[in-house]
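Design job #97: recover the sequence.
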């Protein structure tokens, strides 16, 4: 007998919370800004223009926004924990990079 059913694979029942997705996007944008500013400053041997500081400020604002959204995501009961934790780790890495840059 032929089977007409198609096998459907389902890897996870959990969906990501919308706040965690937004936080992850802002966190990645902040990470890209920070890395761009660092690389540009190293290429220019520390004599980077003021726009590098503006890029770092944009990274800081994006990271603070990501932190707000990840805290909202943790309060929400919907969505998986993995996305929330990933977004929180990205926010912490960005904050550590910004603190390290400030200390230098």
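Job complete. Output follows.
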């Amino acid at each position: 007998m032929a089977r007409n059913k198609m096998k459907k694979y389902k890897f996870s029942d959990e969906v990501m919370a919308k706040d965690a997705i937004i936080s992850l996007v802002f966190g990645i944008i902040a990470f890209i800004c920070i890395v761009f500013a660092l690389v540009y400053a190293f290429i220019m041997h520390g004599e980077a223009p003021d726009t590098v500081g503006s890029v770092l400020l944009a990274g800081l604002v994006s990271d603070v926004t990501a932190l707000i959204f990840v805290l909202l995501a943790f309060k929400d009961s919907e969505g998986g924990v993995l996305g929330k934790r990933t977004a929180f780790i990205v926010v912490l890495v960005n904050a550590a990079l910004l603190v390290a840059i400030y200390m230098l």
